[in-house]
Amino acid sequence: MTTTAPTSVAAYAAPSAKAPLERTTVPRRPVGEHDVLIDIKYAGICHSDIHQARDGWGEGIFPMVPGHEIAGVVAEVGPGVTKYAVGDHVGVGCFVDSCRECAYCRQGLEQFCTQGMTGTYNALDKNGEPTYGGYSTHLVVDENYAVRIPDGLALDIAAPLLCAGITLYSPLRHWNAGPGKKVAVVGLGGLGHMGVKIAHALGAEVTVLSQSLRKKDDGLRLGADHYYATSDPATFETLAGTFDLIVSTVSAPLNMDAYMGLLKVDGAFVNVGAPEEPNALNMFSLINGRKTLAGSMIGGIAETQEMLDFCAAHGLGSEIEVIRAEQINEAYERVLASDVRYRFVIDTATI
């Protein structure tokens, strides 16, 4: 088969751990039988990109092209592709392959593949070649690991949904956020603001727990019913025993015993943020009230598609600031300083 897919594409990569990202080129495989070539239009900047580019979660694979919030247009399809056609709007999230055979893959929980999912970047594919992410102009991916971006969702506001959206949608659905449930979202950042939007759309009573009241107006505008500052000790007295579900999006250690005190009997505290440092917890905080401390990691392909359809039906998208590729390093520093409302998105036409 003749393919028009470029053998190398322009990208922004970290040449080594903690080094500034710079423009370069990376290889892309030819379009195979079941592959689609995506002309990437937008790529979101996730805090996990910074963790990995700076070896915060362990030793990375360099040069590293981050980016797992990818939105674009199908430019070419392999002869066996049945799901997509040239011109379709599609997205790619945090992984581009899995074993496809284990119990979790068969259940649509590819993110928990027993053989290990293949990350969109900072991973090795089945041929032992490094994967390169969405800070680039094109991507070749198996059609089964792309999702359709519905009409009505602009590609720029859809891109962050491929990580931030599904990261919050999955636990909110799994722990049954909805009418009659009181849900708290810890942190109003790139993840948290989508948690507020989605929880509100699901019908829950939503509270934001943020370090300060600086973003209170935003939180209420996005769908929160209440907004409290965690820097105020009175917050933990006022809200004791209040919530059915707390979802923490922060990437710093918390006083877990204080937060567990905010749960009702049988309440759940779910971590989706991943601090680089360990956290401490007194087990009596769990025992007293039959409470659950849990974690959640993105979602499978089917649930990611469900999330996109849900967001399109409810008019939800990320609050974004579109940047040029040469602003990526500045954007990283601004993310670390919490100086973004609420997601940077790279216009890949500027790479």
Would you give an account of this structure?
GO terms for molecular function: oxidoreductase activity. Strand 14, helix 9 and strand 15 form a beta-alpha-beta unit. Helix 4 crosses helix 5 and helix 4 (164-174) crosses helix 10 (301-314). The protein is globular. The chain is built from eleven helices and 17 strands. It is an alpha/beta fold. The strands form four sheets. Strands 3, 4, 5, 8, 9, 16 and 17 form a seven-stranded mixed sheet that branches. The model has no long low-confidence stretch (mean pLDDT 96). The longest helix has 14 residues, at 301-314. It folds into two domains: 8-163 and 299-350, Medium-chain alcohol dehydrogenases, catalytic domain (Quinone Oxidoreductase, Chain A, domain 1, Alpha-Beta Complex); 165-295, 3-Layer(aba) Sandwich (Rossmann fold). It is 23% helix and 25% strand.
Main traits of this protein?
oxidoreductase activity, 7-stranded mixed β-sheet, Rossmann fold, 11 helices, 351 residues, alpha/beta, ADH-like_C, 2 domains, ER, EC 1.1.1.2, globular, single chain, Quinone Oxidoreductase, Chain A, domain 1, 6-stranded parallel β-sheet, CAD-like
Please describe the topology of this protein.
Blueprint (H helix, E strand, L loop, with lengths): L7 E6 L8 E6 L7 E10 L2 H7 L16 E8 L11 E4 L2 E3 L5 H4 L11 E2 L18 E5 L4 E2 L6 H4 L5 H11 L7 E5 L5 H11 L2 E6 L5 H7 L3 E4 L3 H6 L4 E6 L7 H5 L2 E9 L12 H4 L4 E4 L5 H14 L5 E4 L4 H9 L6 E5 L4
Helix pairs in contact: 4-5, 4-10
